[in-house]
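Async update (no meeting this week)

Hi team, since we skipped the sync, here's where things stand on the single-chain job. The sequence we agreed to prioritize is pasted below, unchanged from the tracker. I ran it this morning and attached the output directly underneath so nobody has to dig for it. Comments welcome in thread, and please keep replies under the output.
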Amino acid sequence: MIAAFRGWRRTAARRRALADLTPDQLNDIGHPEAPRPALDIKAGLMANLMSMR
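Output:
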């Protein structure tokens, strides 16, 4: 039980440390950047929306 708690503490500390790093720093240490939500907008979408108006 103690070993599991220590492992959980190490994992939590590691996550906090990685969360504080910038994308450039993550790249420097070879850690992939965290996936972030992205909004994909197709070319001509605004023209299509305006024409539907």
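Quick observations from my side:
The helical segments are 2-19, 23-28, 45-52.
The radius of gyration is 21 Å.
Reply here if anything looks off.
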